[in-house]
Amino acid sequence: MRLSESWLREFVNPPVDAAQLIHQLTMAGLEVDSLEPVAGVFTGVVVAEVMAVEPHPDADRLRVCQVRADADTMLQIVCGAANVRQGLKVPLAREGAQLPGGLAIKRSKLRGVPSEGMLCSAKELGLESQSEGLLELPDDAPVGASIRDYLQLDDHIIEVDLTPNRADCLSVQGIAREVASINGMSLTPLPVPEPVSGAVPARVVRVLSPEACPRYLGCVIQGVNAAAPTPLWMRERLRRSGLRSLGIVVDVTNYVLLELGQPMHAFDLARLTGDIQVRHAEAGETLALLNDQNITLRADSLVIADDAGPLALAGVMGGAASAVSETTQDILLECAFFTPSRMMGAARSYGLATDSSHRFERGVDPELQDRALARAIDLIISHAGGVSGVVTRVESGSHLPVRTAITLRQARVRKVLGLDLPDASITALLERLGMQVAVTPDGWTVLPPGFRFDIAIEADLIEEIGRIYGYDHLPVCLPSVSLGMQPVPERMLSADRFKDTLVALGYQEAITYSFVDPAEQQALLPDGVSLALQNPISSEMAVMRASLWVGLLDAARKNLNRQQDRVRFFETGLCFLKASETSALEQVSRLGGVVLGHGHQEQWGLPGRAADFFDVKADVESLLALTGQQAIEWKRDQHPALHPGQCARLWLGGMAAGWLGMLHPSMEKHFGFEQPVFLFELDLARIRERALPKFSPVSRYPSVRRDLALLMDSQVSVGEVVSAIRSQQAELVRDVRVFDVYQGKGVPEGQKSIALGLTLQLDAETLTDECVDQCIQEVLRLLEHDFQARLRD
Asked: Using CA atoms, how far apart are residues 152 and 47, in angstroms rounded to an integer?
């Protein structure tokens, strides 16, 4: 909402400057986005009158003008504007004037003819970004007066950012009500005379959809001069509010919209056929709108129509066929109240957004129509002439909004705000907001005004008290709560422990959106079911993530594009899973990571190399080490997003707990990577449970190490081999280390050589050679039976 400060101060003029005024509005919840001057900085510009115009002797496009700058001074000005003419009153920058942009006006010669100043356009004064010709002033503009004083250019444009619930402030009067309430002042009443009805036949109006339009007012005005100029003061107020002048009739409807917040529309009476109907459209009907857009109407769209068909999309935009033009003589002026719930989405469904729809779908004061129509009739007749007829009024009282009284408890006000205000102060504050207040033994019964659609419950009233009293004036006090230590199971690791470990390993935490691109998620999880959002922020954020990888890959790609050659990110967060379209939603907390680029920071002591699968596996196992779990298994598996040769699934205690692998080559191409990318994702609920530490005495007896070189099938998992040895010889074998894996010359094709180091020890006695040999033979028999492994020659 844009408005000029001077216009606002005509309604209420508090004893504060502009800076204090915008602070008051912002603290009251009407955040001010900007405060800017209405014109550029200039000096020495006055109102002047063109007395004579002659052609320039040496230039076809220039004119030599004799200009009266004040009662005693005539100046010769050379001007190239197409609209310069005798009798025109325009702004004149006299010699020595300073215009916006630092332009200084001096005596000069234009094609050999002396010029003693410059006649100015609106653009040259910083009033508009574009303008054609000189700024034409009214005939009664006083010659010699300062243009800044005459046009009231020492003014500011205030732009207020309103939340959707504050539709009552979508007008100058609405914001003035707020200012008056904050400062404890009264509004200056707006004089609106009752329309004087002449002998003008009324138009029959039939409202066929009263549930969508409970009130419709119409008035015929005959003999209007639609070509009459809009007064300069009105054009200026429209301009300062962001609207351009479109002719006196349309300008008046726009002016009333800004002044009072009531959208209106005017039809050319000569272009109407039969009665006016407010009805729902018939499927397939078409309408050419004022913006030259042709739409096909749906059956649920409310329209204003006549016997020939639709004239306007109700509450949104009028039609071109019935629009007022400069040749219009008779008009039908309409003013209506449309039910907000029926207007919501009506404009957006046709790709439209107008000032009228913006107000109607949020709620217009249902008691405003008579006053707004009377105001518009008075302005039109005052500036364009004409005679008005009787106001036609169609109303359905049962469909108009009903205000409900709200009980406000004194004790509740004190508890919520921490403020002990006198009852009389609360009563006066609520009455300043236009509410009807009745005192009760425990508090008040409050009836909100018709323009406050957002006041419905007790909490709304308490908010209003705090807002108008001043949030910055409320007492600061700490909440009084009873604190108690919550039990933390010793077996459960916090997510922060995992985060700290990853940070120590050189990772950085990323925080990405839970909303992701459907195409990218579908590429990573082609068999998954994505939860679509009903009202997404954008098409690239239209589904809930089923994996942390979507956001992490996007973050990694953006960092690579910004010259980051080593990326190590992790993230914790919820993933939203559905087994099928009809199944219930499951929210799973996960820890994910992405690694690419160099395996370590660049340094002189180590040769540079790229990170690989086992670098990332070591990082994940550092996390798993926090759990103290022994039943950890990595199994070869297949994931649609991971490389089939470098993909493993984590199992803890016989349950799947996560994935680790290299991004599939096709996914690398899809996401725009040109180097290997490694990913991991773990189920936090599965890895958070740890084994409790338990004391074991240290053996007093020496340990024995035996190394075994084994040949086995290349598809056998070394982890399974180690697990099998540990499970069979749990008492004797204290440690199993893999210190070599080899495939190549000397090893049959399809097999691999694995070198294991076994550490054996007993708690009660020293190991003998016979005991060690027997243990090794049992291990070899086990491996031969389960994995067809044999000692390498």
From this structure: 13
Residue 349 CA to residue 342 CA, distance in Å, equals 13
Number of residues that this document lists for the chain: 793
Are 278 and 208 in contact, with CB atoms under 8 Å apart? yes
Model confidence pLDDT, tens digit, residues 266-285: 999 999 999 999 999 998 89
Cβ–Cβ < 8 Å for 281, 303: yes
Please tell me the distance from the alpha carbon of residue 720 to that of residue 66, in angstroms, as a whole number: 104
- State the Cα–Cα distance between residues 453 and 163, nearest whole angstrom: 13
> β-strand 436-440 against 331-337: which pairing, if any?
unpaired
- Cα–Cα distance measured from residue 158 to residue 241, given in angstroms and rounded to the nearest whole number: 9
Q: Is the dihedral of CA 127, 131, 137, 143 positive or negative?
A: positive
Write down the pLDDT at residue 261: 94
Q: Which of 620, 656, 686, 661 is nearest to 524 (CA)?
A: 661
pLDDT in tens, 691-725: 888 888 888 899 999 999 999 998 888 888 888 88
Instruction: Give the global pTM.
Output: 0.68
Handedness of CA 395, 396, 397, 402 (dihedral sign): negative
User: Beta partners for 160?
Assistant: 32
Q: Is the pLDDT of residue 480 over 80?
A: no
CA distance 158 to 57: 48
Distance from C-alpha of 642 to C-alpha of 666, rounded to nearest angstrom? 9
DSSP 322: G
Contact 67, 117 (CB under 8 A): yes
The Cα 18–Cα 33 span in angstroms is 13
- Predicted confidence at residue 368, as pLDDT, reads 94
pLDDT at 191 over 90: no
Query: For 279, which DSSP code?
Result: E
Alpha helices in 276-406 (DSSP H): 340-343, 355-360, 369-384
pLDDT of 494 strictly over 80: yes
Beta bridge partners of 219: 333
- Give the sign of the dihedral formed by CA 331, CA 336, CA 341, CA 342: negative
Element (H, E) at 326: none
Strand partners, 713: 751
Q: Tokens standing for 753?
A: 């050589």
The C-alpha atoms of residue 118 and residue 126 are separated, in whole angstroms, by: 15
* Nearest partner of 241 among 227, 261, 223, 215, judged by Cα: 261
**Contact between residue 575 and residue 588 where contact means Cβ atoms under 8 Å apart:** yes
Burial of 357 (0-12, 13-18, 19+ CB in 10 A): buried
Contact 615, 507 (CB under 8 A): no
- Can you tell me the distance from the alpha carbon of 191 to that of 194, in angstroms, rounded to the nearest whole number? 10
Each residue of 294-314: pLDDT tens digit? 999 998 899 999 999 999 999
- Find the distance separating the first CA and the last CA of the chain, reported in whole Å: 88
